[in-house]
Design a protein that fits this description.
The protein is an alpha/beta fold. Helices cover 52% and strands 15% of the residues. The protein has eight helices and six strands. The strands form two sheets. Strands 1-2-5-6 form a four-stranded mixed beta sheet. Strands 3-4 form a two-stranded antiparallel sheet. A hairpin with a 4-residue loop joins strand 5 and strand 6. Helix 1 packs antiparallel against helix 3 and helix 2 packs antiparallel against helix 3.
Length: 167
């Protein structure tokens, strides 16, 4: 199962998945991939069952202010007029140690979960094996897992390429 990005259009994807799940014939996928908003959805699709209801509920109750907010005073100094701190908080609340343990257990069964991010320096796709990270048992693996999803939700590659062409 490949779950793509599209910002707020991710609600369409989760709606389709929710309907499929509640119809009763959605399989437990051997491999799940996600990028951008699909990276958020992918963990929950990978785990299936009640996790589908959780992510579906999250996507139907979310608002732009739950993802980012503007600080127009930053126009006079600072690196950005927007802050995605709300998105980071949302990931911290929803990607829990228990979720990480469940991903690790599925990884040990042979299932795979991959997330794509952009290497901003090279403009190339980087694919992360999220199950291996979850199963690693290393200190900081939960933060790394969340940060990869956060990075995947960052500015799309085509925008960065356009900015580079201007400089």
């Amino acid at each position: 199962m490949a779950i793509s990005g599209g910002g707020s259009h991710g609600a369409y994807g989760i709606g389709l998945i929710d309907g499929w799940y509640h119809r009763g014939d959605m399989p437990a996928f051997d491999v799940v991939t996600g990028i951008s908003t699909g990276s958020i959805i992918s963990t929950f699709v990978f785990l299936g069952n009640s996790h589908i209801d959780h992510i579906s509920k999250l996507y139907t109750q979310i608002d732009t202010s739950d993802i980012y907010h503007y600080n127009f005073f930053k126009i006079f100094g600072g690196s950005s007029i927007t802050s995605t701190r709300p998105l980071k908080s949302m990931l911290e609340q929803n990607i829990t140690p228990e979720i990480l343990d469940e991903v690790a257990a599925e990884y040990r069964k042979g299932r795979r979960l991959y997330i794509g991010t952009l290497n901003i320096d090279t403009g190339h796709l980087v694919v992360w094996d999220m199950g291996a990270i979850a199963a690693s048992g290393r200190p900081g693996s939960l933060d790394l897992y969340r940060n990869i999803i956060y990075a995947s939700c960052a500015m799309p590659c085509w925008i960065i390429k356009q900015i580079r062409n201007l400089t």
